[in-house]
């Protein structure tokens, strides 16, 4: 059994001034983003990942390759080693997405959404898991500061790439989609410039397969959000003003459900809610003072909870078992 996870680590910035930092992350400034607080942040995020011990983890909000490697090295010091890793570096966005893996990454490529810095590239990695090819797509879509049409743009590029690969392949989409798993039912009027259509539900086609995993009949072209495989009250990864939301998801090609060599273990999707990650019924995020100038307080973790799911794997090429799997809708 292997564990696959996604975690938005909330602004892991390095200590080199690049000019792209958020104001409170300018190194060695009045905000106290300094070596001491940087080390605490690395150790805290490392503790979370180490406690989960995922075989593959997708990460969001990494500023740079330097910060990415510093986290990798901190994990190694804490007893968790990832031989394989990839970071989306083709576009100099303020924060980036990356992957740590205990399994070999065959290749990495990036899916560009738009030339502007408003959109972060999606990271595509093909990973060899004991002879099974896994296509992993790490996402960090436009925040709720933007309209839904901006998230739809990312969703369309992602769905086009999945069509190229083929829905019969082992495909996993994960990350911070800045969308609830049922965003189409909960979309805020301030974000709705698409007549209620959403990227995660309408473009990625996750509105049809909404039963527990053991009740799903795969349909070509439709993707399955694993949040439907757990209780309603467990479907969250983020809290804002004590309101629970599921902004982070793990979404799969339903072919994985019937694959004999690589398959999802039912009822294992969950947000990782260790006691130390929660405070006053909210996520215990990295603490920055509310008054200006904003100053780092040297405690806390992230405003997101990690999301994890477990999969089973057998030796061999799972794709051989996919012929004739789909049913007509």
Explain how this protein is built.
The chain is an alpha+beta fold and 329 residues long. It has one domain (2-317): Deoxyribonuclease I, Chain A. Strands 1, 2, 3, 4, 13, 14 and 17 form a 7-stranded mixed beta sheet that branches. It is built from 6 helices and 17 strands. The chain has helices at 35-52, 65-77, 148-165, 183-186, 199-203, 255-258, and strands at 2-12, 56-62, 84-87, 96-101, 104-111, 122-129, 132-140, 170-176, 224-225, 238-240, 243-245, 248-252, 262-264, 270-271, 278-279, 282-283, 307-313. Strand 1, helix 1 and strand 2 (56-62) form a beta-alpha-beta unit. Residues 318-329 have low confidence and may be disordered. Helices cover 19% and strands 27% of the residues. The two termini are 32 Å apart.
